[in-house]
Amino acid sequence: MTVQGLREHRPEVLGDVLARFGREIKAVAYLIVRDSGDAEEVLAETLLTALERGHQLRDESALRAWLLRIAANRALGMRRRSVRLIRLGSLPDRPSTDTADAAVIDRTVLGEAMASLSPRVRAAIALRYYADLDVDEVAAALGTSRNTVKTQLRIGLDRLRDNLRDPIPDPGPGPKVPGSEATRV
Question: Rounded to 5 degrees, what angle do the CA atoms 117, 136, 109 make?
């Protein structure tokens, strides 16, 4: 029913698309662009593109992957256009009431690690592990080969592991214990 509405360019179907896929589209876009306002803009552009190009969608079961492909391409385009902008940092959408909350800390650390990846690698990881698309669907969404996606995923996961690995503290020489030194007689 939703796909038919998109094919017929009926704007009222966008509410259903937004309800079913909006949160996921925005999350994938955020993982790529790293800005909540830009992610919302990607979501809006994705919905408009879906309405304009709904006639191109042939397989009803491919709606989710098609929408995520549109969102990923829009987000990557936005990243390319804003490459010259200097980001001064951003505040969290909602301030945490408990700064020691482990889940908040984990999300922050993971977000910083994801930000260190290139936009294409970040998009591949977001589509594969957040949106749960298979490698072929990620390749189609990003307009690249299956092997390129596999390489991007391997590189991205290796870098994330390196960035997230807890450094092992160097124990150093340790404290001196009286009486532990050798005494010359």
Answer: 25
Report the Cα 127 to chain-centroid distance in Å.
7
- The three-point CA angle 123-24-139 to 5° equals 35
At 125, phi and psi to the nearest 5? -65, -40
Q: 138 burial class (0-12, 13-18, 19+ CB within 10 angstroms)?
A: buried
Tokens of 172: 């150093």
For residues 133 and 72, the answer to whether their CB atoms sit within 8 Å is no
Residue 14 parent element (H or E) = helix 14-33
pLDDT in tens, 120-174: 999 999 999 988 899 999 999 899 999 999 999 999 999 988 888 865 555 555 5
Q: What are 137's two structure tokens?
A: 């669907």
Please write down the long-range contacts of 135-144, taking CB distance under 8 Å and 24 or more positions apart: 137/65, 140/65, 140/69, 141/65, 141/68, 141/69, 141/72, 141/73, 142/69, 142/72, 142/73, 142/76, 143/73
CATH of domain 2-83+102-164: 1.20.140
- Domain coordinates of the chain in residue numbers? 2-83+102-164
Full-model pTM: 0.66
Provide the token pair at 95: 């301030």
Structure tokens at 57: 């969608």
